[in-house]
Specification:
Structural class: alpha/beta
Number of domains: 1
Order of helices and strands: HHEEHEHEHEHEHEHH
Largest sheet: 7 strands, mixed
Strand content: 5-15%
């Protein structure tokens, strides 16, 4: 059966393709990235990824084994930097500011979701210095409540070691990523109608469960969620 994903998501630009392969090779060899749960991601439609945040490498690492671009939301000040800004603009990153948080940036992200892209968000808002998932800021709820596409929790462990805060070089290491099952219908109804604080905590718990599973897999421990298969 052929995929029915829109062509816009199936055909990333040349720059994305040129950067994806060397990043994939780096992740496979130097960082020894492994992932599980890819079978949870529906490849025929767009989706929203809610990810814990440990390192500047997280956006690259989470996208390595996915077959289409992930559009991340990044603060607009980064787009003013000469080289980085050009790269961000041409690799599907969406600029966002406090003024535009409920305006053009969200509308563009929702359009890309409908076009079959994955949208990546770090609801903690900043990098964590530990493996504990911090409190989620409510800004991401505006998008969750307006999309009909699946919402996936994602946990990443190990990236904070290979490139911690203040580091200029990437250490060799081991990284594990878990793509969790999408939010259930009941969870989506709860998010759409519940108070912000309760909805943030529900999402945080789903991501925390993925982080805990990733930690167990990284240490080689058996997990009760053994149906996740390594990629």
């Amino acid at each position: 059966m052929t995929e029915s994903r829109p062509a816009s998501a199936l055909n990333p630009n040349l720059l994305w393709r040129a950067l994806h392969w060397p990043c994939w090779a780096l992740g496979l060899t130097w960082l020894r990235v492994k992932c599980s749960g890819l079978e949870n991601v529906d490849h025929t439609k767009g989706g929203l990824l809610l990810i814990n945040h440990q390192s500047f490498l997280d956006p690259l690492l989470v996208a390595l084994w996915l077959t289409r671009p992930v559009s991340y939301l990044a603060r607009d000040s980064l787009f003013k930097l000469p080289v980085l800004g050009w790269l961000l603009r041409h690799t599907y990153v969406i600029p966002i500011s406090r003024e535009a948080a409920r305006g053009g940036s969200i509308r563009l992200a929702l359009e890309r979701l409908e076009q079959g892209y994955l949208i990546g968000i770090f609801p903690e808002g900043t990098r964590s210095s530990s493996t504990e998932v911090g409190a989620f800021r409510p800004g991401f709820l505006a998008m969750v409540r307006r999309t009909k596409q699946p919402v996936y929790p994602v946990g990443i462990v190990g990236s904070g070691y290979v490139m911690p805060r203040g580091a200029w070089f990437i250490r060799p290491g081991k990284i594990q990523i878990v793509y969790g099952a999408p939010f259930t219908f009941e969870e989506m109804v709860s998010v759409e109608s519940g108070a912000d604080a309760a909805c943030c905590e529900l999402a945080r718990q789903r991501v925390s469960a993925c982080v805990a599973l990733a930690q167990a897999q990284l240490k080689g421990k058996p997990s009760p969620m053994s149906h996740h298969n390594e990629a």
